[in-house]
């Protein structure tokens, strides 16, 4: 298989690079100075693309790779892949579901606790040397808060299960109601936001869910409400979110993703009712290894004509 | 200032008297709402007299004292209160009260253990996730503008599947354990005595618990037995990847030895709400990214404080009407 060309579109994991190099002819796209020339030269040997949440395979890339057979994403999200184009051309697509569910859900709860209980702000306060005895600043209780989840897939359900251990009543919005689920369903995001204390974005990014968190939703969540985003930056109308936070029309936010990563609106840096993370939802040693193994496993299965491990298309 | 009692409202002189040496947090935040509408507070801290003289002059018939960590009830203090029958603390911890002396003299003690369990447990889990997933450190990274410059942040460690040792399975420990189970952690514990109705494996010493755990959460009370119970030996047993979270009392950990272990990389990280000499925090910790620090406020929510105030009032009302106390500390 050493002659099979695999194009990795951006750096994501050195273990994955190392393992792919052992098995395939790995091209590191980000090290190529003249990308068009490179593609023209190598297009006939590239049979696989490996992408992630930052970059995948859009229509343009798919068109210039006539021998492309499979796109394997080092993520569960598929928003950087033109799925319709892949279907049209019979290109297989795989992702990394399940192995990262726990980490993302853990982080969602971690963000809720950090925002409500002001853990990051406390840490800054102590490190500043300003702690004096008798400094009684109250924070917001988490147990029992109403948690509203947008998207009740694997990650949404995992968030719900954890929040229940803190006695949080769970409600959700989803494309369709799930009658077998005991949580309260709201047929609209605004209604969900109006009826919860903490709103969590845990759905996939599609045309329908682009800017699903808009001004109306933010207003419904309100000055005591907290937004947690472990989905994708474009789920949120970011300028609206920033002004709501700066003007204190929204109580707080825990954000792991942003519209234009790695750029984060600087107006947020001075606010203490926020936690800002550099897209670390699946960022543990254990999970990234499991994700890498899935990418490798899917590619090997494909080129050995075996069933794919986690196909999407 | 010497005319302390004359300065009190005449109405309040009919109310039962409660001595307060230094105001506990609940009093500072909620006095008007809860406590002084029902009781006459004898406020020692407002007097310019030295404490023992104040008590000798004014506290001879005092039957109840409301205390806190800032105003310990020692044998010496008790000796100056010949009519004392009740010590109330608005905290969960009772390490600032000479329980042996109280027991000897038949003085009842009440605390506020149950009302803080949820908030304490929430913060303990929050601190553990913060250390393992580098939440505070990564937040700093973003706010310092480093993400576009230095790229992706370092990987953290997965919480699910971790073996978490809970030290002390009382109100706090049980609440922590219940939460951790939902994250797929395996909960282990050490406690003074084994609890047969509990599904978690019991370890009879903290050392054995640490050796078999990935993380330790300290949830027990501070007593002569637990002082410096977490020492270098225990921390080394916890190991290079090990994380310790302390929401109990600073002195349960040998702080000097813990700081050395952290600085030398002999344990993986720490989430600390309490310290041996608050508000002083060892400065070596300020340079470490694998440590999350909190200024002794894991139970500081409005709900906890209101509940604690209500419990103080409830215990005082029960005491002064000869009814059973709501939350007596049972001597073991």
Automatic annotation (TrEMBL), chain A:
One of its GO terms (biological process) is oxidative photosynthetic carbon pathway. InterPro entries: D-isomer_2-hydroxyacid_DH, D-isomer_2_OHA_DH_cat_dom, D-isomer_DH_CS1, D-isomer_DH_NAD-bd, NAD(P)-bd_dom_sf. The gene is LOC18595944. PANTHER family: 2-HYDROXYACID DEHYDROGENASE YGL185C-RELATED, 2-HYDROXYACID DEHYDROGENASE-RELATED. GO terms for molecular function: glyoxylate reductase (NADPH) activity; hydroxypyruvate reductase [NAD(P)H] activity; NAD binding. SUPFAM superfamilies: Formate/glycerate dehydrogenase catalytic domain-like (SSF52283), NAD(P)-binding Rossmann-fold domains (SSF51735). Residues 14-312 form the D-isomer specific 2-hydroxyacid dehydrogenase catalytic domain. Keywords: Glycolate pathway, NAD, NADP, Oxidoreductase, Photorespiration. It holds the Pfam family 2-Hacid_dh. The keyword NAD applies. Residues 109-281 form the D-isomer specific 2-hydroxyacid dehydrogenase NAD-binding domain. This is Glyoxylate/hydroxypyruvate reductase A HPR2. Belongs to the D-isomer specific 2-hydroxyacid dehydrogenase family. GyaR subfamily.
TrEMBL record, chain B:
One of its GO terms (cellular component) is cytosol. Pfam families: 2-Hacid_dh (PF00389), 2-Hacid_dh_C (PF02826). Gene3D superfamilies: NAD(P)-binding Rossmann-like Domain (3.40.50.720). GO terms for biological process: oxidative photosynthetic carbon pathway. The keyword Transferase does not apply. GO terms for molecular function: glyoxylate reductase (NADPH) activity; hydroxypyruvate reductase [NAD(P)H] activity; NAD binding. Residues 42-329 form the D-isomer specific 2-hydroxyacid dehydrogenase catalytic domain. Residues 125-296 form the D-isomer specific 2-hydroxyacid dehydrogenase NAD-binding domain. Keywords: Glycolate pathway, NAD, NADP, Oxidoreductase, Photorespiration. Belongs to the D-isomer specific 2-hydroxyacid dehydrogenase family. GyaR subfamily. PANTHER family: 2-HYDROXYACID DEHYDROGENASE-RELATED, GLYOXYLATE_HYDROXYPYRUVATE REDUCTASE HPR3-LIKE. This is D-isomer specific 2-hydroxyacid dehydrogenase family protein. It comes from Theobroma cacao (Cacao). The lineage of its organism: Eukaryota, Viridiplantae, Streptophyta, Embryophyta, Tracheophyta.
């Amino acid at each position: 298989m050493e002659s099979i060309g695999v194009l990795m579109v951006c750096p994501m994991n050195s273990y994955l690079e190392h393992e792919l190099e052992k098995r395939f002819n790995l091209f590191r796209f980000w090290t190529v100075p003249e990308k068009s020339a490179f593609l023209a030269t190598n297009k006939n040997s590239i049979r696989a693309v490996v992408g992630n949440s930052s970059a995948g395979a859009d229509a343009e890339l798919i068109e210039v790779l006539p021998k492309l057979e499979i796109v394997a994403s080092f993520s569960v999200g598929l928003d950087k892949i033109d799925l319709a184009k892949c279907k049209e051309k019979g290109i297989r697509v795989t992702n990394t579901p399940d192995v990262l569910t726990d980490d993302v859900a853990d982080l969602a709860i971690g963000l809720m606790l950090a925002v409500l209980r002001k853990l990051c702000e406390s840490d800054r306060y102590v490190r500043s040397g300003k702690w004096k005895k008798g400094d009684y600043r109250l924070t917001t209780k988490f147990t029992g808060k109403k948690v509203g989840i947008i998207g009740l897939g694997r990650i949404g359900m995992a968030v719900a299960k954890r929040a229940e251990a803190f006695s949080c009543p769970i409600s959700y919005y989803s494309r369709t109601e799930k009658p077998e689920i005991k949580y309260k369903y709201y047929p609209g995001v605004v209604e969900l936001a109006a009826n919860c204390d903490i709103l969590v974005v845990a759905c996939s990014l599609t045309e329908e869910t682009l800017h699903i968190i808009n001004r109306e939703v933010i207003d419904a969540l309100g000055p005591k409400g907290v937004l947690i985003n472990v989905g994708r930056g474009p789920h949120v109308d970011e300028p609206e979110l920033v002004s709501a936070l700066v003007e204190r029309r929204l109580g707080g936010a825990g954000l792991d993703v942003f519209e234009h990563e790695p750029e984060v609106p600087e107006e947020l840096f001075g606010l203490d009712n926020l936690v800002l993370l550099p897209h670390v939802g699946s960022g543990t040693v254990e999970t990234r290894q499991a994700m890498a193994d899935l990418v490798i496993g899917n590619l090997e299965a494909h080129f050995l004509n075996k069933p794919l491990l986690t196909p999407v298309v | 200032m010497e005319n302390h009692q004359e300065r009190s409202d005449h109405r309040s002189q009919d109310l039962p008297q409660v001595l307060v040496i230094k105001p506990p947090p609940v009093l500072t935040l909620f006095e008007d709402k809860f406590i002084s509408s029902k009781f006459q507070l004898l406020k020692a801290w407002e007097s310019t007299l030295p404490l023992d003289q104040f008590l000798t002059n004014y506290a001879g018939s005092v039957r109840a004292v409301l205390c806190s960590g800032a105003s310990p009830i020692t044998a010496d203090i008790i000796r100056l209160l010949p009519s004392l029958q009740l010590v109330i603390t608005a905290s969960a911890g009772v390490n600032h009260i000479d329980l042996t002396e109280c027991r000897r003299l038949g003085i009842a003690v009440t605390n506020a253990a149950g009302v803080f369990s949820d908030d304490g447990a929430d913060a303990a889990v929050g601190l553990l996730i913060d250390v393992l997933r580098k939440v505070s450190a990564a937040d700093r990274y973003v706010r310092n503008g480093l993400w576009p410059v230095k790229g992706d942040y370092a990987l953290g460690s997965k919480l699910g599947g971790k073996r978490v040792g809970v030290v002390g399975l009382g109100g706090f420990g049980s609440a922590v354990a219940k939460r951790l189970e939902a994250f797929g952690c395996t909960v282990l514990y050490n406690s003074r005595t084994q609890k047969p109705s509990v599904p978690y494996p019991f370890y009879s010493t903290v050392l054995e618990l640490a050796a078999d755990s990935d993380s330790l959460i300290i949830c027990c009370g501070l007593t002569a037995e637990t002082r410096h119970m977490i020492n270098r030996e225990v921390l080394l047993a916890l190991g290079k990847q090990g994380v310790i979270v302390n929401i109990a009392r600073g002195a349960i950990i040998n702080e000097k030895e813990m700081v050395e272990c952290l600085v030398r990389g002999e344990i993986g990280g720490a989430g600390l709400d309490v310290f041996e000499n608050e508000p002083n925090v060892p400065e070596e910790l300020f340079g470490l990214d694998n440590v999350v620090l909190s200024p002794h406020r894991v139970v500081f929510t409005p709900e906890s404080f209101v509940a604690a105030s209500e419990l103080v009032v409830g215990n005082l009302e029960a005491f002064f009407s000869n009814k059973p106390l709501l939350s007596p500390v049972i001597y073991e």
